Amino acid sequence: MIQHPLLLGGTYGSPYSLKMRAVLRYRRIPFRWVLRNSRWDQLPDVAVKIIPVIAFPDENGEHHEAMVDSTPQIERLEAMVAERSLVPVDPVVAFLDELVEDYADEWLTKAMYHHRWAFPESVTKAGQLLPLDSDLQMPPERWEQARRFITDRQISRRALVGSTDANAPIIEGSYERLLDLLQEHLVELPFLFGHRPGRSDMGLFGQLSQLVRWDPSSVRIAEERAPRVVSWVTRADDLSWLPVEGDEGWRDRDALPASLAPLLAEMGRTYAPFMIANAAAHAAGAAEVVCEIDGHEYRQGTFSYQVKCLGWLREHHAALADDDRRAVDAVLAGTGCEQLFA
Hints:
Blueprint (H helix, E strand, L loop, with lengths): L5 E5 L4 H13 L3 E5 L17 E5 L5 E6 L1 H11 L10 H27 L2 H10 L10 H17 L1 H4 L6 H18 L13 H13 L4 H10 L1 H10 L23 H10 L1 H13 L4 E6 L2 E6 L2 H16 L2 H11 L10
Parallel strand pairs: 1-2
Antiparallel strand pairs: 1-3, 3-4, 5-6
Helix pairs in contact: 1-8, 3-7, 3-8, 3-13, 3-14, 4-5, 7-11, 8-10, 12-13
């Protein structure tokens, strides 16, 4: 039982910040939203200056301990509060749910970054609005400096995260196919694995909160191709209203939705080869990942964090009971995702 509200430090333009805000809202865990780097931001220091930051209260309601990284944040909240869990009871479904969350966090984020910083209308909007998250009364001179700084810095990082002209067909096609898959899935079910959300839904929501509601280029695509997805993102922002009974609401391993297989195949087409190539490049000490995705050459900078993510997935796959691991492998067989655990 949490006696005092947590603090959640983030910004409106951050997909991971809105992901964790949605988690706390759905789980009905008391918290206070704090705009990072605003005059209200008195969050404890964290080793890595990324968002979101969650600060945990002590017995007196003081916030001296904080952590970053949305996936470990979710895991810690699960250990603290049992009600309205995001982890499916069936360990096979729970693992698949975790895998899709990682896809959202580590691959779909490329579409979010690309649509924000590769299209002039999106660049203009982001440059103008993002600085104001921390200070709505920012003087015009400082706002102009912040606008230029953020725009120049983010555009300069495009190639590092894969947003290049050469990679554009891969990233843009991946986003459009995901919209089509989710549009079809939402005809059957309100969430990926049933009638209540899991970590996968929260991961998808975080990136889609920007892609289908914020950045003009990707919003336009979503409104044309996937109106159900746009509506779903609006709902998923605050699911505190959703009735949940105990551990009920998820499909089990024998009743997985038919729409899961095409989604896993999409992940096997894009996310899986990237994650494997990134790990290989990191192990070889290479500064750049070069691999084939969907019949095209894909290049970007090597990321050590995504090596950790793949390592965690492999550890959790190996830790499954034998029958559960065989069941997971049977679901993944032929999707391309099986190569992650070969």
